[in-house]
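Cross-check.
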Amino acid sequence: MYSIKKNINVALVFSILYSFSAYRTADIFQRAALGEAVSFVFLPIILLGCYELCIGNYKKWYILTIGMTLLVYTHLLSVAMAAVFIAIVILSTFYFWKEKLLRLYSFFLSTITTVFLSSAFLIPFLEQQLAQDLKMPTWRELNGRPLGNLVNDILNNDLSSYTIGLLLFFGIIITILNNHLLIYNYDKFIFGLGIILLLCTTDIFPWKPLINTFVSNLQFVWRLNAFASLFLAYSFSLCFKPNKNDYKIRSIVSMFLFIIVLHNSSIINLNNKNEDTAVFLNSHNIVEKAKTSNSKDYATLKSVTYPELIENNIFYLNDKIIEPDFYYNDDHYIVQLENNSSVNQDLKIPVYRYLGQQVRVNNEKTNSRHSEFGTTEVTVPPGGSTVKIYYKYTNLAILSRYFTGVWVALFIFYLGVVQNKKIKRESQ
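Predicted model, tokenized:
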């Protein structure tokens, strides 16, 4: 924020408004959505990158690259949302750009570099996706809440309702009353975008035509509050421009104190509300809690039809259910069984099979395959056998990691050497 406005008061207010925003707090304390909560850290970097490419110094294309790359390694759905907003920004503001071709080229350069820096994730991700059908997170019917209900939830400042919260709602009113402080058109554009996104979380926006489209991957319309919080915090902070008198300083200090008190009271209320249903995790129970989690996201698609196999650890030896000894830890799965037949038999193990799976039978490496249940199947010889299953990175995944490493080194060299020379030359 300081890079955009060169104003320490505005930057401080924005920082605390955004850091303690209600939706981000709900992501942490109500949803425990670690990836999405961390992604909040990088959205302001993306906003700054778009500002530089559309309005400021387009030679600073690397700022958007840094923000988007960090977002890729944090929360993929936020990447898709950010990409849509960047596209909206380009289409909405392109007419007003100066040096259009150079700015478009900088956007292209930023995008390509982001892909290269993200290859260590993107390539293995696509490799696994193309290797077999996986159970993707469930699409949900997108529904905005009635506007009256939204306002009521905001005024109650209930974190479990996933709104922008009471503070940013007051911020909208204060920003409207002080609209003369939104000096530049891009300030007004950002504020307008925040209002539009907030309204999109209501039933005013026609979500029904988008059901069963790729937009359904959003799952919950209140996810838009991540970006709405960013834009509204930006606009509200402009109401705290510096003033020589003490009144402005006192108002900023009062705002800080109010935010902290409101933040803490919201969390206390949330804890009281969830006291009977909350699940507390610690180093003693986290493994057991994880074992009882039956999420099917990213499981092999066939296996979803036979959930009892995985949940109840059902083994088949030549289509007959057996009860072998088995145990596992965080890096391998061991099965010990007896094949009483005089010939090789097929063992179906209730473990998902992905690329990179390694199997050893009696310490000899062997190939595994998908069973008709979508689980792991191996061939075992007559007599007693010990089957060990573990994973290694595929060759393509390893290659993509080195590829990314090279690009990270080149990117750091570019920032450290090339850009420093440009800055020195411009200052001279």
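Residues 22 and 164 are 6 Å apart (CA to CA). The beta strands are 315-317, 320-322, 325-328, 333-339, 345-352, 357-361, 364-366, 369-370, 375-380, 383-391. Passed to J.P. for a second look.
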